[in-house]
Amino acid sequence: MEITLTHYLVLSSILFAIGLIGIMRRKNLLMLFFATEILLNATNIGFAAISHYIGDLSGQMFAFFIIAIAASEVAIGLGLLIVWYKRTGKIDLDQMNSMRG
Amino acid sequence: MFEAIAFYLFAVLTIVMFTITVMTSQALYAITAMAAGMIFISAFFFILGADFLGAIQIIVYTGAVMALYAFGMMFFDTTRNVVEKKVNPQIVFVLGVLAAVMVVAIFVAPIISDNIQALYPIDPTIGNSQAVGMVLFTKYLVPFELAAVMLLVAMIGGIIMAGKKMDKSLTLMAEEEIGMMDDSYRAEEGGH
Amino acid sequence: MELYLYIALFAPLVGSLFSALFGMSPKTNITGYIASGLLFTSFLSSLVLLNYVLGGHTVHVELMTWMATGDLYIPFGFVVDQVSVVMMMVVTIVSTVVHVYSVGYMDHDKGFNRFFSWLSAFVFSMMVLVMSDNFAGLFIGWEGVGLCSWGLIGFWYHKESATWAANEAFIMNRIADLGMLIGIFMIYWNVGSLQYDVVFAEIGNLPLVITTWIGIFLFIGAMGKSAQFPLHTWLADAMEGPTPVSALIHAATMVTAGVYLVVRANPIYDLIPNVGIFIASLGAFVALFAASMALVNRDMKRIIAYSTLSQLGYMFVAAGLGAYWVALFHLMAHAFFKALLFLGAGNVMHAMHDELDPFKMGGLRKVMKGTFIMMTLASVALAGIYPFAGFFSKDLILEVGFVEHHYIIYTVLLLTAGLTAFYSFRLVALIFHGEERYKLFGIHPHEAYKFMLVAMSPLLVLAIIAGSFKMTYYQLVTNLLPSTVYHVHNEVTFWIMTIGTQLFVISAILFAYKKYSNWNSVPDGTSKMENSFGYKLLWNQYYIPKFYEEVFSKPYLELSKIAWKQIDLKIVDATVDMIANAIYKTGENTRDIQNGNLSTMLRWMVFGLVVLLALAVAFTVGYNAVSA
After folding, report:
1. Segment C438-462 mean pLDDT
2. Rounded distance between C-alpha atoms, residue B38 and residue B58, angstroms
3. Is residue A59 in a domain?
4. Using one digit for the tens of pLDDT, what is the confidence trace for C318-360?
5. What residue in A sits closest to B133 (Cα-Cα)?
6. Residues 6+ away with beta carbon under 8 Å from C54
7. CATH at residue A34
8. Predicted local distance difference test score (pLDDT) of residue B78
9. Cβ–Cβ pairs < 8 A, chains B and C
10. A76 close contact with B: CB closer than 8 A
């Protein structure tokens, strides 16, 4: 039973869906960040798999850059979160409604 | 055979871990499951022959990112659960599943996979790390340097924002308040 | 010559636009002078053109292209030929006179400037109508005169009856114009062009059925404009307008446009003599029918209006029987004396402070000598006494009927001639002779301004001498129209007919004088005659307006109400409301998207992603399906 590219892509999609569900249902900002990490990792799996099955290193390169982006995002995101927490004492998404239209 | 077993094993493990991350109400469970999931993902990279990527995954995610989150959790009061109102939870799942199905449908469509051609073919005679290095520092040199700058900027940004006085907005304050700021902060010093 | 053509055509338009500039301001005499001056210029140009055409030439110009799409090519083309130049002369002479007259007549009216604007616009439209070289241009002029007629009938728009009459005239004409439009469409459909020369050259090649239908539909248009039965009711009501308007539009020019159309389209009607017989029969019927209504009417202007109707009937008899030049000749002669009659009536109205009932006048000849003479002579001309204009043209129509062996039509027309003489002189006798009944009503009549009488004098002269132009006219128009000579071959018969007709008419005049010149009371509806059935029938115009109201207006009102309440409110309005409500409700329900909650926003973002992915899948599948 051979594992094909499709297997990896399906797995990647499943993880991506889990990440989406997380994004949509979490109200805790920290948990929201976790969900975004899941999304990024899901795509990484896809890139690595394609890189392997097509025989092209570009996929791995993109995965590297995604990891770099994820790291920056965590740094900035956590920084913003800390500022927000200091000002309001809350990290609840429902209470961030200053953009109410 | 071995590859199939490994794939299914790690696939199940990853999915479970991430599901826990997404579903649990305990922040500590979530971060633990997350870290585990990250490591399991690196296993896929090893299976796929992307050794260097796998190593980076472990170092960066499990080492750096997770550590950052752990610090973040320490900073926030994680013992106090955020009340998560569940508004129409089924919609969330329906949307997620739908998105997954769509993505799969697109990926398996032969029109896409048939048209992909290798730009930088993997040379089987050299190791993965070496190959990655060669591509990264030739074709992707500029993006690589930009990514480095981006990381630096993010680091500085993170430090500044997490630093002191960042909970005040100078633009929203009157002149006197800015003048008084020094005193009030001196009193707060050593509070943390 | 083109220059004169353009001057003749556009001078009235310039006058109209100039007056329109001051349309909203109070009376300024300058508009009246300028409009009249430009009209006179137009008249002079027409005179030059007439002279040119008498020399055997015609002028044909194409101002510019109007419509050119595919095979359709309609230019703004104008032609001055033997027929249109006659019409131009009639229109410009009468309208110049009416313009000058109106300066005096509308002296005290607030809408002085507006009046001249409409009046000159009317003349321009009429010129377009008669000068156009194609059916489309004719139709533009046709609609233009209809519009100006609407504006002038309803000139005193604060009077309900005036606005009603204006709308009635307009709507009646719309009904007829639909017929005309269908006729024009059929011409284009079958011939492929609307140019007169092309159409008349080709019309003989069409199947007779189609030609017949074209003739019928065009005549329906003519019936509306010329107020022939059953579309005649608007003309009498149109007398609500100022009297100069009645003289110009509802006697001399616009109402004769129908006759002009039939004359102009003579190559079509020549092919379909059966339709011609119908036209002639209808004309004869209308002549008698209108004359009978004029017998008992007690409204001065309406009597003259019915007389116009009756004379239009004469013209249609001639045109229907193929004597196009006779019809046009009567049109011309009639324009002069009928306009004169109307303007005279206008003087009387002014003198009597808008009193229209001749029974309340009487004995006015002492105060209004000029008007008295003019109206009497115009009535003599209308009655057709030798040597006035009416004799030549009307007698000719009788002869046509006789020579063509339509003895019934001849008899009807002869009878009508007697009636015409009777009601004309009934009017004259009641207004100018007898006791001065107006004193009962405390009115102090006065003669009109001198210059108004002077302005009318050209019409008087023409009403008297127009008959002597007969041979010149005949030679002119028979270049274009069929030149049949209608002459009773038997000398004895001819003289018996002529003298007999004259005697009949004169006896009718004398009878009218005898009966009415010593009238001394105002009828109050109690006399035996006024209660007889025949009188009531005629008084109520054969109950036709009532019939129209009951059969058309009232059901239409009901239908409109149903359409309003059932269709408009419940379907149209409801649909519009539903759309508005749907949008409003959508906004109401979707404003939650803008609640500022990031979680909701994220959900919507994912939703959008799913939609986009679905589209991507759908297009991919579709693309594969197409390429495979």
Report:
1. 83
2. 7
3. yes
4. 998 888 888 888 998 899 989 999 999 888 888 888 888 888 8
5. A61
6. C472, C476
7. 1.10.287.3510
8. 59
9. 31
10. yes
Nearest 5°: phi and psi at C405? 65, 30
The predicted-structure confidence for B79-132, as pLDDT tens digits, reads as follows 565 566 666 778 888 888 888 888 877 777 665 556 566 666 777 777 778 888
Mean model confidence pLDDT for chain C: 87
pLDDT tens figures, C104-144:
888 888 888 888 999 999 999 999 999 998 898 999 999 99
CA C308, CA C310: separation in Å to the nearest integer? 5
Structure token pair of residue C113: 């400037």
Confirm whether the ipTM is greater than 0.95: no
Nearest to C606 among B87, B99, B111 (CB): B99
Q: Which of A67, A70, A4 is nearest to B54 (CA)?
A: A67
Which whole-number Å values give the CA distances from C381 to C187, C325, C331, C359, C392, in the listed order?
A: 39, 19, 13, 23, 10
Residue span of the structural domain in which A79 resides:
5-88
**B165 → chain A, closest CA residue:** A83
Chain B, residues 63-82, CB within 8 A of chain A, namely: 64-65, 68-69, 71-73, 75-76, 78, 82
How many CB atoms within 10 Å of residue A65? 17
Query: Looking at the domain assignment, is residue A101 inside a domain?
Result: no
pTM of the model: 0.67
Give the closest residue to C305 by CA, choosing from C364, C370, C226.
Answer: C226
The residues of A whose Cβ lies within 8 A of any Cβ of C are: 20, 23-24, 26-27, 93-94, 96-101
C546/C116 Cα distance (integer angstroms)? 35
Put simply, the answer to whether B106 touches C609 (Cβ < 8 Å) is no
What tens digit of pLDDT does each residue of C170-191 get? 998 998 999 999 999 999 988 8
Q: Give dist(CA C550, CA C107) in Å, integer.
A: 41
- Find the mean pLDDT for residues C623-628: 77
A20–C597 CB contact, under 8 Å? no
Neighbours of chain B (3+ CB pairs under 8 A): A, C
More confident residue, C420 or C70: C420
Radius of gyration, CA atoms only, chain A: 17
Structure-block tokens of residue A91? 């990290």
Q: Is residue A97 part of a domain?
A: no
Whether A94 maps to a domain, the answer reads: no
Question: Which of C616, C623, C624 lies nearest to residue B106, judging by beta carbons?
Answer: C616
Q: How many other CB atoms are there within 10 angstroms of residue C14's CB atom? A: 17
Query: What is the rounded distance in angstroms from the CA atom of residue C133 to the CA atom of residue C135?
Result: 7
Q: Do A97 and C597 touch (CB under 8 A)?
A: yes
The alpha-helical segments, DSSP class H, found in C106-207 are: 112-131, 135-153, 160-191, 196-202
User: How much is the pLDDT for C250?
Assistant: 84
Query: Which of C599, C610, C624 is nearest residue B95 as measured by Cβ atoms?
Result: C610
* Residues C359 and C519: beta-carbon distance below 8 Å: yes
Of C608 and C622, more confident: C608
Out of C607, C616, C623, the one facing B95 most closely (by C-beta) is C607
Q: Which residues neighbour C576 within 8 Å (Cβ) at sequence distance 6 or greater?
A: none
CA distance C358 to C428: 9
Chain C touching partners, 3 or more CB pairs below 8 A: A, B
Q: Please tell me which of the candidates C596, C599, C602 has its beta carbon nearest to residue A100.
A: C596
Check residue C579 and give its pLDDT. 94
Q: How many domains does chain A have?
A: 1
Question: Average pLDDT, stretch C484-492?
Answer: 74
pLDDT of C588 above 50: yes
**How big is the A-B interface in CB pairs under 8 Å?**
238
Per CB-CB distance under 8 Å, the chain B contacts of C606 are 95-96, 99
Cα(C458)–Cα(C480) distance, rounded to whole angstroms?
A: 28
Check B151 against A72: CB less than 8 A apart. Answer: yes
The pLDDT of residue B77 is 66
Q: Would the pLDDT of A65 be above 60?
A: yes
